[in-house]
Design goal:
The chain has 255 residues and is an alpha/beta fold. It is 49% helix and 14% strand. It has one domain: NAD(P)-binding Rossmann-like Domain (Rossmann fold). The protein is built from nine helices and seven strands; from the N terminus they run βαβαβαβαβαβααβαα.
């Protein structure tokens, strides 16, 4: 039976790069995103067979529809990549946009992780990689409050599930990719401009897939971000949050 990989948020950024990389490795792909035209254009560029599913993953019914569409496919890899952020003071940012963010960054990831995990456990094999952020490794992120909170959820969920699998002797992998700035359209959607130099989507994805194969639970692609996360754990939480707020204010002239 042919092996499949599912990539959510495949119409741009890291999702598109995951699709390219997995196709190059011979996987048949199931590409999921809202922008069907972009997905079909991407599918035409890839070497392996691709199925396109247009879905708005902020809607629970669309998440279930995706699961129904892949139920007869031998999915070896599931990349939970779809997500977005928003920048600004918590009292001023759009509530509707934040609710959509929570639905996409948290609810959809939770749903897909649980349902795919149940399937993979039956076979005792498979990989689920949740795309989080180094934001999820920090205590809080003033001026990107909701985004940091959603990514903290993803990291916490992933770590807990991975430990349950380890204790049960399972061969199924669940991990999370936690990059710092990456050069994608995330910045435009979130209305920010990062002060740190971003890494390329290609490097981020290749590193993430390599560490996934090694079954690393929390994957941080670059040494500077690794060092920053390690140093941050040594600081009192209140100090870390103040430093985070200072760095966040540099991302936009609106604060």
């Amino acid at each position: 039976m042919e092996k499949y990989a599912v990539v959510t948020g495949a119409s741009a950024g890291l999702g598109m790069e995951f699709a390219r990389s997995l196709s190059a490795k011979g996987y048949r792909l199931i590409l999921v995103a809202r922008r069907e035209k972009r997905l079909r254009k991407l599918a035409e560029q890839l070497k392996t067979e691709c199925e396109v599913i247009e879905a708005d993953l902020t809607k629970t019914e669309d998440c279930y529809r995706v699961m129904e569409a892949v139920q007869n496919r031998d999915v070896e890899i599931f990349i939970n990549n779809a997500g977005f952020g928003e920048y600004g003071r918590f009292t001023e940012t759009s509530l509707d946009k934040e609710m959509d963010m929570i639905d996409l960054n948290v609810r959809a990831v939770h749903l897909f992780t649980k349902l795919m995990l149940r399937r993979m456990i039956q076979k005792d094999c498979g990989y689920i990689l949740n795309v989080a952020s180094c934001a999820g490794l920090m205590p809080a992120g003033p001026y990107m409050t909701a985004y940091y909170a959603t990514k903290a959820y993803v990291v916490s969920l992933t770590r807990a599930v991975a430990e349950e699998l380890r204790e049960n002797g399972s061969h199924v992998y669940v991990g999370c990719l936690c990059p710092g700035p990456v050069n994608t359209e995330f910045n435009r959607v979130a209305n920010v401009e990062f002060q740190l130099k971003g890494i390329s989507p290609r490097y981020c994805v290749r590193y993430g897939l390599k560490q996934m194969r090694r079954k690393k639970v929390v994957i941080v692609p670059t040494l500077p971000i690794k060092l920053a996360m390690t140093f941050g754990r040594l600081l009192p939480g209140s100090v870390y949050v103040k430093i985070s707020a200072s760095q966040q204010r540099k991302k936009s002239s609106r604060i």
